UniProtKB/TrEMBL annotation, chains A, B:
Pfam families noted in UniProt: TetR_C_6, TetR_N
Keyword Membrane carried by entry: no
PANTHER family hit by this protein: HTH-TYPE TRANSCRIPTIONAL REGULATOR RUTR, TRANSCRIPTIONAL REGULATOR-RELATED
Residue span(s) of domain HTH tetR-type: 18-78
Highest taxon listed in the record's lineage: Bacteria
Keywords, ordered alphabetically: DNA-binding, Repressor, Transcription, Transcription regulation
Protein name (database record): Transcriptional regulator, TetR family
Gene3D superfamilies: Tetracycline Repressor, domain 2
DNA-binding stretch(es), residue numbering of this chain: 41-60
GO molecular-function terms, A-Z: DNA-binding transcription factor activity; transcription cis-regulatory region binding
Length: 215, 215
DNA sequence: TAAGTTGTTATACAGTCGTACAATAAAAAG
DNA sequence: CTTTTTATTGTACGACTGTATAACAACTTA
């Protein structure tokens, strides 16, 4: 399995600001993966990037900006992984797209244990750093809206009974997050395939008009 | 709303080892609630407990033990909160017990935003400190087993079709965790009551034999 | 080649970190 | 009361924190 956020081959070389900023951001994520919140120190990140500690303030205003930029990169990275996986298949039916979205989410490279520490650390910072909380909420709203649209289209396609699709999508999102979290913390209780099946059951219930309580 | 883990009235007094250990553990949780992982320093915890920093090593072998004991206390505390809420009602039917468990979990004092930081910090430590991971897995298995028993009893009561109850319980647990997490991170998208309703839908689907995919 | 620009290093600074340890104060035991 | 025990304090230690800054080195432009 390919490692997340490997450092570029050239070390010690003089890089352009964009390249160096990117290298430091990747090193930040690698440090969090290795040591959690404890790995989030300027010296450790710079050493991981093969660079002197003082260089950080030359490319970032400080540690704060580095962290926020690392989070911004992470969200974009995962978002692109999901879209890349989805683009491999062209499914006209909204229902099939929905089911594909679930399956893709519980397979690499979207599913990866290394993400656990990263998300936990950033979520833990979101209370003290509002910028992170704002970013997280935006991404989350995007995901739920995506699910909601697919489910609304499914209602039309299959002529289902009216239901609060927003809450149904919220439930599916929470179910996926909960299973992802539990599997990341302890992968011995169920497999990714089983997790995907559990989520598909929520869709089954949705299609079978079994979520009428959400009204 | 009552605050979690308030310090006892007597400060500056000479306490028994058990009392002092308890006070330090409570101060630890309060520090995490206030500042997240950054609040988890010996000096901050001892100041929060109104005590000199050197006292910690007199009652604990070090920071490590304090953290693990704080986690142990936290799990017991929440477990007792759940049981206390459940004990208020005597429901003979397993299905009603199951539904009650859900409702109780999305009401105070089980549902409390202050728990978010605490869990995130401890989960973030679980990779580096195996003792925490072991404890978490034990508690999680207990919860899922509780759900599984209630659901198995429901199958008998209602003569439902055979289904993989373990996976159905895993799904319910994940759904509850995911909704708890999302609500704790951003409580503007849905209410605790709606979260409970979403979970009850999973039970509805279970009762309606809509989870047959789990076989 | 010379001058100017800028990516990079190394050092210094004032804090904070966890913890060991001697001094102190208060309770318990005699 | 005196003696013993022990909860508590204050300090000291080396290591680490984030960042500012001067010196250095590499690239660009003239």
């Amino acid at each position: 399995m390919e490692e997340l956020y490997t450092q570029s081959a050239r070390t010690g070389a003089r890089l352009s600001p964009e390249e160096r900023r990117s290298a430091l951001i990747n090193a930040t994520l690698r440090c969090i993966i290795k040591e959690g919140h404890a790995g989030l120190s300027v010296r450790k990140v710079c050493q991981e990037a093969g660079v002197s500690a003082g260089l950080l303030t030359h490319h970032f205003t400080g540690k704060e900006e580095l962290i926020i930029e690392a989070y911004r990169f992470l969200t974009k990275d995962i978002y692109s992984r999901i879209n890349q996986s989805l683009a491999q298949v062209s499914e006209p039916s909204a229902l099939k797209k929905l089911r594909l979205f679930i399956d893709v989410s519980f397979r690499r490279p979207v599913l990866d244990k290394d993400y656990l520490m990263v998300w936990l650390v950033f979520w833990g910072l979101s209370k003290q750093k509002p910028a992170i909380a704002v970013l997280r909420n935006e991404v989350n709203d995007t995901v739920i809206s995506t699910l909601e649209k697919l489910m609304t289209a499914t209602v039309s396609e299959l002529s289902l009974e009216a239901v609060n699709v927003r809450l149904a999508a919220t439930g599916l999102s929470a179910l996926m997050d909960g299973l992802w979290l539990e599997w990341s913390l302890n992968s011995t209780n169920f497999s990714p395939d089983e997790a995907a099946k559990i989520c598909q059951c929520w869709v089954d219930a949705f299609v079978a008009n079994a979520l009428q309580r959400l009204n």
